[in-house]
Write a structure and sequence with these properties.
By secondary structure, this protein is mostly helical. The chain has ten helices and no strands. It starts with about 25 loop residues before the first helix and ends with a helix.
Length: about 220
């Protein structure tokens, strides 16, 4: 008989993802410990599921699969993989955690890389959330993310944020980008300036060639 042990946070205990974007390093450290435990539980549940698959126990396999699917809800990026296609993501209960995952990478990239590096998930999430009919709170969060990202050195898949900028284009976002484009930070000037240029040219594709051409022209000014 397969004994399945489900280890999830008891009632009243913080979710493993809570605290990952806290400004207090001590709070983030606690959250990272919880996340590490959740990731270990997820791996253990997957191993149990795989063992039942190899042994051909259909009933046990179903139970082990349900257990794995439940446990991985408490880990990232695993919990973000089963999500609806665009544009239904606006009503997905997991949307706040998708935004948290992106904000964690934006604010604390080294911790994100050490504990949850998943460039493909980052790319796909940005593409999925880049829709125009979000609630205002989500649109504001996406604008926050764009503002953070343009002010740092480029990281893998950051170019996808142009999609988000085009989806949530607004006077507020443009004001933020214009402010960033006037900073002494050369990354901010280039990235923000490029996005502003693309926002005025919806027909221009967001490709590396377009970026290099724009950058060469901007450097001559």
């Amino acid at each position: 008989m397969l004994l399945v042990v489900v280890r999830v946070p008891p009632r009243g205990v913080s979710h493993p993802r809570d605290g990952l974007i806290a400004s207090d390093p001590a709070v983030r450290a606690v959250a990272l410990v919880r996340l590490t435990d959740a990731e270990r539980n997820t791996r253990d549940a997957l191993d149990r599921y795989n063992r039942t698959c190899r042994r051909g126990y259909s009933l046990r396999r179903k139970a082990a699969r349900r257990n794995y699917e439940e446990i991985r809800k408490y880990s990232v990026p695993d919990a973000l993989w089963d999500r609806p296609a665009r544009p239904d993501i606006v009503a997905w209960p997991g949307l706040p955690y998708a935004l948290l995952f992106l904000e964690w990478e934006a604010r604390y990239p080294q911790e994100w890389t050490r504990h949850a590096k998943a460039w493909g998930t980052k790319q796909d999430l940005i593409r999925d959330v880049a829709v125009a009919h979000h609630k205002e709170t989500v649109r504001t969060k996406l604008a926050d993310l764009i503002e953070i990202v343009v002010q740092r050195p480029y990281r893998c898949k950051d170019r996808e944020y142009v999609r988000a900028a085009r989806a949530v284009d607004s006077d507020d976002l443009r004001t933020r980008l214009k402010t960033a484009a006037r900073l002494d930070n050369p990354w901010a000037r280039r990235h923000a300036g490029h996005i502003l240029w693309l926002l005025d040219r919806s027909e221009v594709p967001n490709t590396r060639h377009v970026w290099r051409t724009w950058l060469a022209a901007a450097s001559r000014k």
